[in-house]
Design a protein that fits this description.
Elements (H helix, E strand, L loop, with lengths): L5 E5 L6 H11 L3 E3 L3 E2 L14 E2 L2 H9 L3 E7 L2 E6 H9 L3 E5 L2 H9 L6 E6 L3 H11 L4 H15 L7 E4 L3 H18 L15
Parallel strand pairs: 1-7, 1-8, 2-7, 3-4, 8-9
Antiparallel strand pairs: 3-6, 5-6
């Protein structure tokens, strides 16, 4: 069985990453979403174990001490972390994984020897549009929006370190591009668009 691919996705808050990923994963078969642990409170409509594993700050820090995270970071006063065991097991089983993490977490994984990843940065078309999207959520205070915009500037400076850059201006086009990247990386690793290994052809 061929080893799965790890796709590391980062984006500023409000870039439309969650919507893009949901649409892309509904289209592209053979993808699994790595559910991160977080200490932040669930937003409206979020489900524990589906969107995130919501946990207390104390429990999260215990997991850090036990070395259970592949990476973790504190973002906007909340902790986020990726289970090492879940990622390794799924990759070993041949499953391609989408890992949705911030630039801090991506940098940590990039510095490690394994697992190797394909890095994709999703950016908004501009800061003005990003601010409009953040305000449109109706869940952020004026102060929080200001913090997120400042962080977005810093995060977008990291985009050059990623293998691919997608500007999420027109959602359908961004989804098409994202899916194309998945298919291209599978072809490069001698796998079909479905993710199945190519057999019976001389390598």
């Amino acid at each position: 069985m061929s080893r799965g691919l790890l796709f590391v996705i980062s984006a500023p808050s409000g870039a439309g990453k969650t919507t893009l990923l949901k649409r892309a994963m509904a289209r592209v078969e053979g993808l699994s979403f790595s559910v991160s642990h977080t200490t932040r409170k669930p937003r409206k409509g979020e489900v524990d174990g589906v969107d995130y594993h919501f946990t207390s700050r104390g429990t999260f820090l215990e997991m850090v001490e036990d070395g259970l995270f592949l990476e973790y970071a504190e973002v906007h006063d909340n902790f986020y972390g990726t289970s090492r065991k879940n990622v390794v097991e799924q990759l070993s089983g041949g499953m391609d994984i989408i890992l949705d993490i911030d630039v801090q977490g991506a940098a940590i994984i990039r510095q490690q020897d394994a697992p190797a990843g394909v890095y994709i940065f999703i950016a908004p078309p501009g800061l003005a549009e990003l601010e409009r999207r953040l305000r449109g959520r109706g869940t952020e205070s004026k102060e929080n929006i200001g913090v997120r915009l400042k962080n977005a500037v810093i995060e977008m400076e990291e985009a050059g370190k990623y293998d691919y850059l997608i500007v999420n201006d027109q959602l359908d086009e961004a989804v098409d591009l994202f899916a194309s990247i998945i298919y291209a990386e599978r072809a490069r690793s001698h796998r079909l668009p479905s993710g199945e290994p190519i057999t019976g052809i001389s390598q």
